[in-house]
Structures are given as C-alpha cells and as structure tokens.
C-alpha cells in the first residue's frame, strides 16, 4: 500500500533525456537530497541538471515520516564521548541550521509545515536520557527531560527539543522541484567520474553528485562496507489519541509517533533488511494493543541507509575522486540530512569551503564495531553455498520476505519483486535465479 503523502499531491512531471548533453554539475537521483541540491545550485546560478531513474521522489522520500529535527535519537551523548566537543557541537549546529532552512522555505510553500516539539523517550533506561540532557547542556543546548510524554504506555521520561517541525514532504518537494532542470525516467546505467550514460542519452559533467539513496558505484568509497539498510513499517491510524509532538524510542526497534491531520503515523518494527519475517504484523499487533478503537487507513514500509557512526556521508565520494560527490547514510534522519547535503555540496561543487564538510566527510575513520558486522553479513551472504535467488549487486543469497512478497538482500538491502525486478537499490539489474523456484515464491 502507499503512504499518506502519495495520495494527497500531484507531483510535477519531467521529460526523459534523449540526447547527449554537457553541464557543469550533474546530480543523479531525484529524492529529497537530489532535489534540494538542485534547488540550491539553481539559486546560486550554477549550470546543472538532475537525472532521475523513475519519477522524482519515487524512492524513500515518498515513504518517510517527515519529522524535521536536530534531535537524532540519543546521539549527542555518544558523539560527545567518542567524537569530542567540537564534532558534537558542529553536528548540532549543522542540524539546527537544516531545521531553520526548512522552516524558512516551508512557510512560503503550501506543504503543511507545522512547528512541533521532538521527543526521545525511554521505557526503562532513564540514565540514558539523563546522560543525553547533560551532553546537550555541555553543548549549550536547552533540552529538557520531561516526566510524562503524551504516549499510550508508561515511560521513564523523554528528552524534548522544542520548536522543531513536521511537514508534507511531497508537497514541499513538488513546490521546489517544479522549475528545476530535471529529466525523469533516465536511469544512469554506466558511470565514470565525469560521464553518465542513460538508455537514450548521456551527460558529460565537470562535477557529479550521487544522491541515489544507496550509492551505486562500487569500485570507490567502500559503501558496501560502510552501510547497511534498515527496514521499518508505518501505519496511518484514524481515531487514535493525538500525541501532538514527534516521538521516537531511544532504543533500537522501538515505536515512532507523529500526527498528520487526523491521522496518527505509527511506525516501528525496524530490522536490518532481509532479516525480518513480518514487521507489519508486529506493528499491527502494537496498534491493536495501544489503540484498540483505531482504524488502519493505510500502511507502508521503507528503508534507509545506516552509516557506521550515525552521521551521514556527505562530501567527496572517496579521497581519490575530487569531482565526484555523494549524499547518503542518513540513518533515518534524511530530511535534515538532505538539507545538509544541499548546504555542504552546493559549496563544495563551487570550490568553496564549508564548515561542516569535515565532520560529514565520507572518508572519515571507519573503524567502528558495525564495520565488522557489515563485513560478516556480506561474507556470509556471498559465500553461502545455496542456489535459489541471488542479488545482482554483489551476489548475496536473498531472503524471501513473506509479509511483503519480495526477495530481500541482508547484505546491502537491495529488494526485488517476486518476478525479479529491482524494487530498492543498490542493485541495478534483475535478481539472479539458480535452480527451480518453490511454487509459493514463483507465484508471489
Ligand atoms: C520508516 C522511515 C521513516 C523515516 N522518517 C524520517 C523522518 O521522520 N525524518 C527524517 O529526517 N528522516 C526520516 N527518514 C529518512 C528519510 O526519509 C530518507 O533518509 C530520505 O528520504 C532519503 O532521501 P534520498 O534523496 O537520499 O533518497 P530517495 O528518496 O530514495 O531518492 C533517491 C532517488 O534516486 C533515484 N535513483 C536511484 N538510482 C538511480 C540511478 N542509477 N539513476 C537515476 N536515478 C536513480 C531513485 O529512483 C530515487 O528517486 C525515514 C526513513 C524511514 C525508513
């Protein structure tokens, strides 16, 4: 089923690239990150074009919950402890700036922009909340620990960030994209640093920004080690008590809440893509428990790229590619992540410095525990002696997802319809089948 956003907006349409062109900056991928990069470059008078493989916002952006906040879970205590004051302070400053840029733009556009407080709650571990508030005090941010968040179960409190925002992501994207230089249905099939080939045309560019959600060039940057994808589920509930704020659990796999109009957007069931049996059923059960009188109006699932340290990868694709850039690894905070990509990359492609470039650099230290888990999952998937279905990205064995009737890759999160077509990247081509399919899989 589709998200509440797709039903309530008409997106602008763009033609397909049918010739060979030249431009200064090529942006690949028309989700929130690519569109905001294009918008910033247009504002700066830079010659650019954007290639989108399907229609704009047909990836993760159409399925987000669209909370705009500098509060990314309980990240500041971790950043302060492991990265130091300067890094944590810059991360906070960058995300506050991103929130402000959305609010400045959003008030001028019909996109249901609303001010809302953001909360991270804990159900048992109050110490984590106290540490987060202390870390934020240390950084000079006035976060508050509140005792009774407006949620349908007991908690031990929540950390509040006041005056953040929530909006309709597709109304926003439609409004800012309508006058941009975009080609739709123009997937990039092959790529060198300065040249992109689509089915009917090509683009030669001086600089290229890859904003394709999971970066698709494997030979540079090691993104297949630096990221995995996490899949989550969302229900839009009617007749559920209002929460009037944006809530997320401080623990992995917890529940998320925000209102949109009369609906409660109720999220959860998160797990590494390819690992989950049925996240929808787990979430429906939670909805029945906490909101027995509510009706499920629609439900959807989506996934995001998880970086090694909770911060996005925004900057040069690798240290060996001076003119190839990337915006990815948003860790489920890709609204501010997309805005930060536009802020940082619009400077870098114009040869300007940006104060946040260093902390988001994709070439930063990757020696984190998650790296070993990513490498282990990939090795298991690739070396597993089993026929069945394999991913066209790096050859990992795919897992059948009975709840969604898809083949999912636990290594890097590519997903395929039961017919074999790619639903989610990094895979670019049909899945590979070895041997005979079980009947229930072949029938879908
Ligand atoms: C359940 C869930 C809830 C979330 N909620 C929030 C939230 O409340 N707040 C928040 O800040 N973040 C949230 N996020 C994260 C956020 O939605 C994403 O990080 C963000 O939408 C990603 O945008 P993007 O532009 O990078 O990717 P996408 O929107 O996926 O765009 C990538 C585009 O690239 C195109 N593309 C891919 N390959 C090619 C190619 N070869 N050639 C041309 N085009 C190509 C695709 O078709 C697609 O349109 C959430 C994520 C999940 C999973």
Description:
By secondary structure, the protein is of the alpha+beta class. It has 3 domains: 166 residues, FAD/NAD(P)-binding domain (3-Layer(bba) Sandwich), CATH 3.50.50; 172 residues, D-Amino Acid Oxidase, Chain A, domain 2 (2-Layer Sandwich), CATH 3.30.9; 75 residues, Rieske Iron-sulfur Protein, CATH 2.102.10.10. Helix content is 27%, strand content 27%. It is built from 11 helices and 23 strands. The strands form 4 sheets. Strands 3, 4, 5, 6, 11, 12, 13, 14 and 15 form a 9-stranded mixed β-sheet that branches. Helix 2 runs antiparallel to helix 3. It is globular. The model has no long low-confidence stretch (mean pLDDT 94). Bound molecules: flavin-adenine dinucleotide (FAD). Flavin-adenine dinucleotide binds next to helix 1, strand 11, strand 15 and helix 8.
CATH architecture of the largest domain: 2-Layer Sandwich
CATH hierarchy, class of the largest domain? Alpha Beta
**CATH H-level name of the largest domain... which superfamily?**
D-Amino Acid Oxidase, subunit A, domain 2
Work out the count of structural domains: 3
Could you say which small molecules are bound to this protein?
flavin-adenine dinucleotide
Shape verdict: globular
């Amino acid at each position: 089923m589709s998200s509440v956003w797709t039903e309530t907006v008409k997106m602008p349409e763009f033609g397909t690239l049918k010739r060979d062109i030249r431009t200064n900056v090529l942006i690949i991928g028309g989700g929130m990150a690519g569109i905001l990069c294009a918008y910033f470059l247009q504002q700066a008078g830079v010659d650019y074009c954007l290639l989108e493989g399907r229609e704009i916002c047909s990836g993760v952006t159409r399925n987000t919950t669209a909370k705009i906040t500098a509060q990314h879970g309980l990240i500041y205590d971790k950043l302060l402890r492991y990265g130091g004051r300067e890094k944590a302070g810059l991360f906070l400053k960058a995300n506050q700036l991103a929130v402000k840029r959305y609010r400045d733009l959003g008030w001028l556009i019909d996109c249901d922009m609303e001010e809302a407080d953001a909360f991270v709650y804990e159900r048992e571990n109050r110490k984590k909340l106290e540490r987060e508030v202390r870390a934020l005090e240390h950084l000079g941010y006035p976060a508050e620990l509140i005792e009774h968040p407006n949620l349908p179960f007991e908690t031990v409190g929540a950390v509040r960030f006041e005056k953040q925002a929530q909006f309709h992501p597709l109304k926003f994207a439609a409004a800012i994209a309508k006058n941009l230089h975009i080609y739709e249905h123009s997937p990039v099939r092959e790529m060198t640093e300065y040249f992109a080939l689509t089915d009917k045309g090509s683009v030669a560019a001086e600089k290229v920004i890859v904003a394709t959600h999971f970066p698709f060039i494997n030979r540079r940057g090691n993104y297949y080690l630096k990221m995995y994808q996490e899949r989550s589920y969302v229900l839009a509930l009617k007749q559920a008590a209002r929460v009037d704020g944006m809530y997320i659990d401080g623990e992995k796999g917890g529940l998320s809440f925000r209102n949109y109009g009369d609906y409660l957007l109720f999220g959860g069931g998160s797990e590494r893509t390819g690992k989950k049996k049925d996240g929808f059923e787990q979430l429906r059960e939670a909805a029945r428990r906490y909101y027995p009188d509510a009706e499920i109006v629609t439900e959807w699932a989506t996934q995001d790229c998880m970086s090694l340290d909770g911060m996005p990868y925004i900057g040069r694709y690798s240290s060996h590619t001076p003119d190839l850039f990337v915006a990815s690894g948003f860790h489920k905070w890709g609204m501010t992540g997309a805005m930060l990509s536009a802020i940082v990359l619009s400077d870098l492609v114009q040869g300007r410095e940006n104060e946040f470039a260093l902390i988001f650099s994709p070439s930063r230290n990757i020696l984190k525990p998650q790296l070993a888990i990513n490498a282990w999952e990939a090795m298991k998937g690739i070396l597993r002696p089993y026929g069945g279905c394999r991913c066209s990205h790096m050859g990992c064995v795919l897992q059948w997802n009975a709840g969604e009737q898809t083949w999912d890759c636990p290594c890097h999160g590519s997903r395929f319809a039961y017919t074999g077509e790619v639903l989610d990247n990094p895979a670019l081509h049909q899945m590979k089948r070895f041997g005979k399919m079980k009947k229930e899989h072949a029938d879908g």
